[in-house]
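User: I'm curious whether this sequence folds into something compact or stays loose and floppy. Could you predict its structure so I can see for myself?
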Amino acid sequence: MTKIPNSPRAGVRDRAPIFRSGVVGPTALPAAPCTTHLKSDDLAERWGVTKAALAKQRLRGDGCRFLKLGRRVVYRLSDVEAFERASERRSTSDTGPDLAH
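Assistant: Here's the prediction. I'll summarize afterward.
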């Protein structure tokens, strides 16, 4: 790559970006965001809660199903939507679906 005189980066060797796909160079496209899984940050923002609240739910076992991939925690979008549907109520006294039938 060529140097641009009087630029703040003059003399600094320009490098081609490396993207998650492993392709190097200016023609590489960045990896598309995952649409089938949510990170804790994304789910916390979606539900208006803190990441700590999600961590407590995971510890107690009363939250949404999740995947533990090494040290990472992710939520399948299908599990999130199923949990949201199961949490629907018609009134504050509604205890949810009748599981006796």
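Summary: The first helix runs from residue 40 to 47. The chain has a mean pLDDT of 79.
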